[in-house]
TrEMBL record:
It comes from the Bacteria. The active site is at residue 103. Residues 10-117 form the HIT domain. Gene3D superfamilies: HIT-like (3.30.428.10). A motif (Histidine triad motif) lies at residues 101-105. PANTHER family: HISTIDINE TRIAD HIT PROTEIN. This is Hit-family protein. One of its GO terms (molecular function) is catalytic activity.
């Protein structure tokens, strides 16, 4: 069920404290932590604490929570002192989603070309 923790979800396990992560920010509704395979000098994931499969499900099922995630991307960028940064939501395997829990990538600290990969 949307919003409920999933036993087989890596990010739900991070939210629950069962798997360690380098947490950089936490709010009542979100957690931000460093990506274990960074693609830029700053690469932080911002996730909702509630489980939604992807950004589309999050936006449709919990628009205020989606707004919380987006607001936290700015807070991460501010704390990391990023003047320029990219926020990416991969939705679906064809777009590169590998963890089926909505998450925003905050990438910065180097030039980011367009279009991406």
């Amino acid at each position: 069920m949307a919003g409920e923790p999933q036993d087989d979800c890596l990010f739900c396990k991070i939210v629950a404290g069962h798997i360690p992560a380098t947490i950089v920010r936490e709010t009542e509704t979100t957690v931000a932590f460093r990506d274990i395979n960074p693609q830029a000098p700053t690469h932080v994931l911002v996730i909702p604490k509630a489980h939604y499969e992807n950004a589309a499900a999050l936006g449709a099922g919990a628009p205020q929570l989606a707004a919380d995630v987006l607001a936290e991307t700015q807070a991460v960028a501010d704390e990391e002192k990023l003047d320029s940064y990219r926020v990416v939501f991969n939705t679906g395997s064809g777009a590169g989603q590998t963890v089926w829990h909505a998450h925003a990538h905050v990438l910065g600290g180097r030039g980011l070309q367009w279009p991406p990969g």
